[in-house]
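Running low. Any example?
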Amino acid sequence: MTIRLMLADDHRMLREGLHRSMTDAGFDVVAQACDGVEAVRLAAQTSPDVILMDVTMPTCDGIEACRQIKASGDDARIVMLTMHADQDVLTNAIRAGAIGYLTKDSATWEIADAVRMAAEGDTVLSPQLARSMLAEVRRHDEPVALADDHQVSKREEEVLQLIADGCSTVEVADRLFISQKTVKNHLASIYQKLDARDRTQAVLRAVRLGIVSLD
């Protein structure tokens, strides 16, 4: 089934460029918004599966628009687009309910992959933002260790490293020669062992534990 996509950005040329590239990638672009207020209205009218939302927009910024869309009960997955890997922006986006966080200099294929992952309910985080979040975690958290009964397996380590490298569920399955269902089973086990709610949190905790690297 074709993924229904909405774009929200106050820069018309960027919006039009995204429209072309995302249409070429096979998505159905159902709406375009030029500010947060319009984004909230169009999300309610068009029911997109995924929204690519600029953080900085006039009238109502992307984070507030994200918060309002999620508060309305809309189940659209929202991927925030930012100019810089800013820790405060990332934290606020998480709190607002965004599922993905990309910098605007991400390649077209990276954005397309992020849309597909978001549509499946997977969290996506650009490497720059992951490093920013990790640096913040390291500044505030004490070193941690896993209990013996929560040690991740070798295969789970491989899955975690590929996720940390930005691979989607499909790509992890292809690289490890396993099914997508098996990948999801591994992720469920990883979330439980690391007490994580999503991929981003799992990767950050795995890095702190020395299980994977973001290098």
